[in-house]
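Problem: given the chain below (387 residues), write out its structure.
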Amino acid sequence: MEFIPRFFRPPERGSFFLFGPRGTGKLLWAQTTLPTALRLDLLDPETARSYGARPERLAELVAAHPDVRQIVIDEIQKLPELLPVVHRLIEQRRDLQFVLTASSARKLKRAGVDLLGGRAVERTLHPYMAAELGRRFRVETALQHGLVPLVYGSPDPADVLRGYAALYLREEVQLEGLVRNVGAFSRFLEAVSFSHAAPLNVAAVSRECEVERKTVEGYVEILEDLLLAFRVPVFSRRARRALAAHPKLYLFDAAVFRTLRPSGPLDRPQEIEGAALEGLVAQHLRAWIAYRRDQHQLYFWRTRAGVEADLVLYGATGLWAVEVKNAGRVRPEDVRGLEAFAADYPQARCLLVYRGRETLKRGKVLCAPVEKFLGSLRPQEEISGTA
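Solution.
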């Protein structure tokens, strides 16, 4: 897989966990950025067996390479028994830096691991951002094949996408024993895909996949621990109206959502495409927040009367309300939710992103082409709405 430079920047010093879904390029980043580091690949069965039988082998390996200062352990969640050894080595040798990649926090939590007692910070690698791809970025391709590097760099992305969910079901869910009934979890994946870019109604998902509500709540937590989904809460600071109670749910990549979402003659393609587009914008804003590391937070805003702003960004650079429209032109009704938000929060900057080509201003609302907006998102820069 070709290495495309990423916006992700590691801590200047010290060890860290590098979380990210499978295929987001964690190991490739480490191989390219840290070419002289020692590496342990715990996806290799022989390596996992050897170090699982005697975790202290790690200390012996480090002792045999006294000049090495960086050690990469890939997929550390496969063998959390190594973490006490890592902790001890960090205490003994402050010059060592461990890079611990993981595509799941589930097993680390279940094992009661304290993530090295604060000795290692946590970072996340996301799918590609449009600005990382530059001129190679196309909205249509991102919606169809997604921005997961493993898929994006494949000669047959559609085939890799089809196997992506099965990979997680087999290697992360079934083999790790995260659920008792894999069939029920598979039904849940299909049912919850209808909640992508929408308020999560656990009771409705429970009825659809015919499992108990408490089980569905546990399944949603598993999706989050596997880094396959994230929830966005309602923005309620100094609220002037009665607001919705349920958070929104997004799958982490637009094409992964489309792969999981069943479609048939009763499904309107516009609905699926619209949800995918909103998810594409949400995943970009989430990556922008993660790479900046300056305490921004992502929300949405929805009143009980149904007036809505798809996404709200709140943080050091101010307050933004964002509406996403899968349409080539802007209609007056498209900006009403943003206008209502601006009436409650006059200091907010309002942005509508759509599939057209022109940058327009409708009252207080800036309307920008989605490709231009996504291409302008760079962690080192504030949001402008235009490239």
